[in-house]
Amino acid sequence: DGAQHATYIVHMAQSQMPSGFDLHSLWYDSSLRSVSQSAQLLYTYTNAIHGFSTRLTPEEADSLMTLPGVISVLPEHRYELH
Amino acid sequence: TTRTPLFLGLDVHNADLFPETGSSSDVVVGVLDTGVWPESKSFSDVGLGPIPSTWRGGCEAGTNFTASLCNRKLIGARFFARGYEATMGPVDESKESRSPRDDDGHGTHTSSTAAGSVVEGASLFGFASGAARGMARRARVAVYKVCWEGGCFSSDILAAIDKAIDDNVNVLSMSLGGGTSDYYRDSVAIGAFAAMERGILVSCSAGNSGPSSSTLSNVAPWITTVGAGTIDRDFPAVAVLGNGKNYSGVSLFKGDPLPDKTLPFVYAGNASNAANGNLCGPGTLIPEKVKGKIVMCDRGVNARVQKGEVVKAAGGLGMILANTAENGEELVADAHLLPATAVGEKAGDIIRHYVLTDPNPTASVLIRGTVVNVQPSPVVAAFSSRGPNSITPDILKPDLIAPGVNILAGWTGSKGPTGLASDARRVEFNIISGTSMSCPHVSGLAALLKSVHPEWSPAAIRSALMTTAYKTYKDGKPILDVTTGKPSTPFEHGAGHVSPTTAINPGLIYDLTTVDYLGFLCALNYTPSQIRSVSRRNYTCDPSKSYSVADLNYPSFAVNVDGSGVLKYTRTVTSVGGAGSYSVKVNSETTEVKISVEPAVLNFKEINEKKSYTVTFTVNSSKASRSNSFGSIEWSDGKHVVASPVAISWT
Q: Which of A15, A42, A49 comes nearest B82 by C-beta?
């Protein structure tokens, strides 16, 4: 099962955070919960992007994309030193 | 680094240009790389005042790294491994430290190049000796370790940029890349946009995929994209053949010389059972055929230093390593484990013919040490990635070139100079090549400019570095491309070679703001979601406005034309050099392209006054698709020259 998982960068529309949440990270976690019981937040970002990174299956990534406030769910990229 | 400060004019007689006042030590260069070796003398904080009050960063403890290893030079050290470990599994602590400690060497090399303290008597085994110093030797350094044995993962890179912005760095240096993808998919581009908005100049390596064209990385217009050139220093090593002929190569080998006579000489391709035995790959040489001989290997596939390791392991006494057509005459020096020299393609072909046809071929290698005042220099490095810009052809990239070949700078204490596991030597400084080395040169120079002009935006600093870059040698001849031996073009050298002593006072600058870059994204027809991914804002392009990439106030011009036609560009320049009357001079290398500028004179009455001009490119005939023509647009008031390269491509 782990083989299916990949890391995704999730861009969120910060201004669309529901009023019931005090922190963006709680909103992110709740969004994640609704597509996966096991997924964890790898990082939450506030300056470079608004969003978080996490490990998901492709199906979970597709489901996440449908949630309110989700702008994009992009697979992680590996960079190399020059 | 040694020699490049002199090559760039940063040596003593220019000390007045870059006053070493408080501000010069308040600039912080953030380096995303493999971490840092804090014991390196390049991070001595002797003579540095207290940490800038604006600094909000910190030092994270981890394996083999305690917070006390930071000081007033190395003021920040963080590491990011969650993304790496999520994909690759836990950091292998037998090979690398789960901490900011650099077990590779690359991060120590780049951060000390950008802002290392002065270290007298630096060298690699005596090669390139001198006083090593970073470009901004009094700037502070903050390292963000995001690269591990298995690579640099974007979730870690974003986390590091996120933190570097919080920490309040002034310059971000990233000598890494990941191919070419659209900006809204490229975490480096996205993170750099956020940094730019906070007034942080982001300098990135252009990539080492040259000499093929359209091979650039990090081409976002809000990033300073740096290619690589040579400097006026070399490490000659002669390949001596039994027929009395000698051929010049380069080497950093230090050790017992070969005996004073030529030795039996064999071509690796004839001493191997492997199809590509000529490449001296691991386990491909037959010891009986190699033992006690000089071996000729061809470049390609495996690392150059590994070829030497393979020859030595098979019993060879020395190696002559030949370039292929791809590297041409470019000579990159390595600290080989045995007497070895790297020769250019032409010499390589002659030597290969000799070893394959002479009935009793013999050879030797003579190491000659360091020579300086090598001319012509700079020459564009073959490996330096080139344009045109495959993501946005209407933005000319790279922006400029800087020293990137055979650069000496700080190194890790965990690895030898070759980086090979079998290399038990330990050095304080190492000599390596790549756009990874040219990028931190520009990062450090940007920090210098920032210390003198703290009010300048990242775009203004990049503009100053570009419009003052030089494209010709002192004798007026154009900078050469080592790949062709002919003049390089703006697709290779961008605006030219960086020239910090003139960049400090550029006269006019081409400024850019976040709104300009948002307009650029509209010109790319980005969807609101894509704009939001890049800019973190809900930005609506004005439907009544016709956006064009050509409208981006960039300090260079990339004009793509289909057949013939007339194209108009507008640019706005800001007088940072005070009042002055600037006249324009245009140059086009072909009569088929006419360049005219209105108005031809710009009169500035005061500093920071803005004026606009319009360029009209009249292309009179259609050339074959993908052909190019070049030119330039220069403004001068007699004291400053504000030069912009022009690249015209027929699509």
A: A42
What gap in Å lies between CA B166 and CA B198, rounded to an integer?
10
Q: Is A24 on the interface with B (CB under 8 A)?
A: no
- What is the Cβ-side half-sphere exposure of residue B286, based on CA atoms within 13 angstroms? 12
The DSSP line for B560-624 is: EESSSEEEEEEEEEEESS-SEEEEEEEEESSTTEEEEEESSEEEE-STT-EEEEEEEEEE-S---
Distance (Å) from the C-alpha of residue B434 to the closest C-alpha of chain A? 6
Q: Is A38 an interface residue toward B (CB < 8 Å)? A: no
Q: How far is C-alpha B444 from the chain's CA centre? A: 12
Angle at B477 between CA B474 and CA B479, to 5 degrees: 90
Which letter does DSSP use for residue B269 in this model?
G
pLDDT tens sequence across B448-473:
999 999 999 999 999 999 999 999 99
Query: Closest Cα partner for B111 from B412, B547, B489?
Result: B412
- In the predicted structure, residue A1 carries a pLDDT above the cut 50: no
How many CB atoms are closer than 10 A to CB B304? 20
| Chain A nearest C-alpha distance from B30 (Å) | 14
Answer whether A2 touches B (CB < 8 Å): no
**Contact call for A77 and B186, based on CB within 8 A:** yes
A44, β-bridge pairs: A52
Report the alpha-carbon distance of residue B71 to residue B580 in Å, rounded.
45
Partner A contacted by B190 (CB < 8 A): yes
Nearest CA in chain A to B80: A43
Give the span between the Cα atoms of B147 and B635, in whole angstroms: 42
B106 touches chain A (CB under 8 A): yes
Mean pLDDT of B99-122: 98
Tell me if residue B33 is catalytic.
yes
Identify whether B106 is a catalytic site residue.
yes
What are the tokens at B170? 């002034």
**Tokens found for residue B171:** 């310059």
As given in the structure block, the two tokens for residue B448 are 């210098």
| Minimal CA separation from A79 to chain B, in Å | 4
Q: Which of B26, B33, B156, B298 is catalytic?
A: B33
What are the φ and ψ backbone dihedral angles of B290, each rounded to 5 degrees? -115, -30
Of A6, A78, A82, the CB nearest to B175: A82
User: Would you say how long chain A is, in residues?
Assistant: 82
- Condensed to tens digits (0 to 9), the pLDDT of residues B58-87 reads 999 999 999 999 999 999 999 999 999 999
| Cβ B298 vs Cβ B351: under 8 Å | no
Task: Inspect the interface and report whether the beta carbons of B178 and A80 lie closer than 8 Å.
Answer: yes
> Which neighbouring-strand residues pair with B595?
B617
Return the axis-axis angle of helices B435-452 and B106-115, rounded to nearest 10°. 30
- Four-residue CA torsion sign, B58, B63, B68, B73: negative
- CB proximity list for B619: less than 8 A, separation 6 or greater: B559, B561, B563, B564, B565, B566, B567, B592, B593, B648
Q: How many CB atoms lie within 10 A of CB B402?
A: 33
Q: Which residue among B25, B104, B106, B175 is the active-site one? A: B106
Indicate the pLDDT class of residue B646, thresholds 50, 70 and 90: very high
Cβ–Cβ of B177/A14 closer than 8 Å? no
Residue of B6, B65, B54, B3 whose CA lies nearest to B28: B54
Alpha-carbon separation of residue B545 from B393, B522, B540, B553 (angstroms): 22, 10, 11, 17
pLDDT at B61: 97
Residue among B436, B535, B632, B644 flagged as catalytic:
B436
DSSP alpha helices (H): ranges in B250-408?
287-290, 304-313, 345-357
Task: Note the pLDDT tens digit of each residue in B183-226.
Answer: 999 999 999 999 999 999 999 999 999 999 999 999 999 999 99
The ipTM (two decimal places) reads 0.97
| E strand spans, B452-550 | 480-481, 486-487, 508-509
